[in-house]
Amino acid sequence: MKTKILEINSNNINLSKIKESARIIKVGGLVAFPTETVYGLGADAFNPQAVAKIFEAKNRPLDDPLIVHISEREEIFKLAKDVPDTAVELTDKFWPGPLTLVLRKSKSLPDIVTAGLDTVAIRMPANEIALSLIKESRTAIAAPSANLFGRPSPVNSQHVIDDLDGKIDMIIDGGKTRVGVESTVLDLTQNIPSILRPGGVSIERLKEVIEEIKICKSDKILSPGMYPRHYSPKAKVMLVEGNGKIQVEKVKNLASRFNSQGCSLGILAKEEHSNKYDSFKVKTIGPEKDLTIYAANLFSVLREFDKEGTDIIVAEGVKEEGLGLAIMDRLRKAAGE
Length: 337
Description:
Blueprint: E1 4-7, H1 15-26, E2 31-34, E3 39-44, H2 48-58, E4 67-69, H3 76-79, E5 80-81, H4 85-94, E6 99-105, E7 119-123, H5 128-137, E8 141-142, H6 157-164, E9 170-173, E10 184-187, E11 194-197, H7 203-206, E12 214-215, E13 236-240, H8 244-260, E14 265-270, E15 281-286, H9 291-307, E16 312-316, H10 324-335
Helix pairs in contact: 1-5
């Protein structure tokens, strides 16, 4: 299969290009497209044969459910039943945006989308290209991240090309994504709402609407991003938690040990520590005081290390506050804990 690359400017959307992309969705094809979080790999959510192609292209396990993307808030009532008032409040505040809601699914949705679960994950992306594609396709679009399963998620079209060129029909190049980590997945089917995956909307912001929220610790795969090893580069990731001098010393000790073993090693460092590792290859990911930059760069830096043939990545952890919770979730899963 030859994959077509189509460039679209999100600030000046070419409707004819959107229509061309939507035609592929309508006939059961696969289109990779940008969202505000990462690039998604989309298919008609009501076409089980098309959705099956997503799993095949990504080499994704069939027990890993997909997120269904919509362009209008009201579409949530077509995909889910028993939609609670809390869901409406959350969509009013956070949609379009990086929040996915897990609700009881309607019978109209194919089981392959939800991996046989009786729940469905739904979100409305905050990206004009994505919204235009969904509207023009005249269907909800099932879309996980547009990468090979388990790899770092793609935040630009080149990452999609690297993983899926020749395996899908089209890639829409809409530039670099803004958020850089996936959406927060919030389960509203329990008595106490539960975060299944931390992401672009922090727990602190969610608590502005919901007073009590818990973080799910289940081993069951209830939503995307719950596999224990995920978002992983080819290199082995060693995560060093903590802060300040103690964290720096731990990183130096690990880096020295692997260097002495002849490994190709790189350090993923916060901007605040960028000058602490002069004798090592260092990539600065962003300042801990501004985790929006850190999150936006995370997957790109992991992929850069791979392209350079790095064997070991020693990564500095951050405080688990705000976006830090999502960043640490991705780093822990990249390391495989």
